[in-house]
Specification:
2 domains; Coagulation Factor XIII, Chain A, domain 1; single chain; 11 helices; 19 strands
Length: 449
């Protein structure tokens, strides 16, 4: 295997023997191959590819296409029927829920068991145990049997272990679909840091994650590798295949009252400020872009030199009232308050609005608005920044707002306090089918010529 190749798969196949009833297994053993009492199911057939060191590869495909089987063969938890796999370096895997954990053992015992299997000595595990517990954030449950854990706690502890074993290759099988928004954001920060030095291989149904994270993508279908190329090319052909085989029929409106004429659906207006033409219909349906705002936690993790501290972050309506629920497309105010612990010559307060993959959807700060006024702050003074904007319409899912205060300019500054995931936004319903955000439509027309 070449020195710059991290994973090499050659003509890999996996066949399972499917028996119609339990006694057929015994008959097959007694007949010693003279007669076949099973049917062959090829989960994978003749798969070959190479992954270079430092690459991130996404594996996509419908359920039953062989994605999980391929990852297990690469990790060595399954034996191939044909072909070979080679890996270079330490491989850490997060496969099906609970893999590698003994349900009767406590969280602590499973940490030592799993980390030991990855090659860490007891002294190395002792030195990293606190960091593992802090990352998993399961609290006192670390001393309880993992069979009492929820699925989210299970994943948090398993991911915390693989994040601390100094792996060269990280293999993940849909594990991040479980877990709360805080944990998913923490995992994405770790993965983006890991991608700078290590090889990442993961399977998912989330095409957006593959396009955003991966250098290449592999498309599997019914055990065969359809193609390996750039995420954009693979996703385009994958989507085309999905829609080509779809038997979905267009939905018909239940009653005439649910239809709207062009005039009703798309009122003509020349006003500079406008609302989505479909707003009355959307608000009366279950597609209203409802967003739940999880309030600021002062103990959220972050970093900074400590010359100032973020003390609160809130979403407000235009009247200044705190919001716990808001609708996409409405005007809001993001208020960030910080206390100066030393003199700040050019304080800058800003925010990043991120999706669950850690992508920054939009951001801003106070620098440009005050670059010629240079507002100074003395030690002990309180600073308040307010950003007034219209929330975009967003797809369902979890989002976060990261906030910070620095001193200097946009190009050169000192970060005094950066708070990850200061606010969490849970979007419960949306009209957005594709894309990262939605745009309010001033007018929509459909007619015949």
């Amino acid at each position: 295997m070449s020195s710059d190749v991290s994973i090499k798969v050659e003509h890999l196949s996996k066949c399972y023997q499917i028996y119609g009833q339990p006694r057929d297994r015994l008959l097959q053993m007694l007949m010693r191959g003279r007669r076949q009492y099973f049917q062959e199911f090829w989960a994978l057939r003749d798969i070959s590819f190479e992954v270079r060191c430092g690459e991130t590869i996404g594996i996509i495909g419908r359920n039953g296409s062989g994605k999980s089987t391929l990852l297990q063969l690469i990790c060595g938890t399954l034996t191939p029927t044909e072909g070979t796999t080679e890996t270079k370096g330490r491989v850490a895997a997060l496969l099906e829920l609970g893999a590698g954990f003994n349900p009767e053992f406590t969280g602590r015992e499973n940490v030592y068991l799993a980390a030991g299997l990855y090659g860490l000595s007891r002294e190395e595990i002792d030195a990293r145990f606190k960091s593992i517990c802090d990352f998993a954030d399961v609290g006192e449950f670390v001393e309880q049997p993992v069979k009492t854990y929820s699925s989210g706690m299970f994943v948090r502890l398993a991911f915390a272990v693989v994040a601390h074993v100094d792996a060269d290759i990280l293999v993940i099988d849909e594990a991040l679909s479980v877990g709360d928004a805080y944990f998913v954001q923490k995992c994405m920060r770790f993965l983006r840091h890991f991608m700078e030095r290590g090889t990442l291989l993961f399977c998912t149904h989330d095409i957006g994650a593959v396009i955003n994270l991966c250098k290449k993508a592999i498309w599997l279908d019914r055990g065969k590798m359809m193609m390996m190329d750039t995420p954009r090319k693979v996703s385009e052909l994958y989507h085309a295949a999905l829609y080509a085989t779809s038997d979905a029929q267009p939905a018909r409106p239940e009653t005439a009252a649910e239809t709207m004429s062009d005039q009703e659906a798309s009122p003509s207006t020349d006003d500079e400020e406008y609302h989505d033409a479909r707003e009355p219909l959307i608000n009366a349906s279950n597609l209203r872009n409802e967003m739940e705002v999880v309030q600021f936690d002062p103990d959220r993790p972050g970093f900074g030199v400590g010359g100032a501290k973020i003390v609160s972050a809130r979403l407000l309506d235009k009247s200044g009232r705190p919001l716990t629920w808001v609708v996409g497309g409405k005007e809001v105010v993001l208020e960030i308050r910080a206390q100066a612990n030393q003199e700040l010559l050019r304080p800058i307060i800003g925010f990043l609005f991120r999706d669950r993959l850690g992508q920054t959807l939009f951001s801003d700060n106070t620098y440009l608005s005050y670059r010629f006024r240079e507002p100074q702050a003395r030690s002990g003074e309180m600073l308040t920044a307010r950003f007034e904007f219209r929330l975009p319409v967003m797809p369902s899912g979890n989002y976060s707002i990261t906030v910070s205060i620095a001193d200097g300019t946009q190009e050169k500054n000192v970060q005094h306090h950066w708070v990850h995931d200061a606010l969490i936004i849970n979007v419960h319903a949306s009209i957005v089918c594709h894309g990262l955000i939605g745009v309010p439509m001033k007018k929509i027309l459909l007619g015949k010529e």
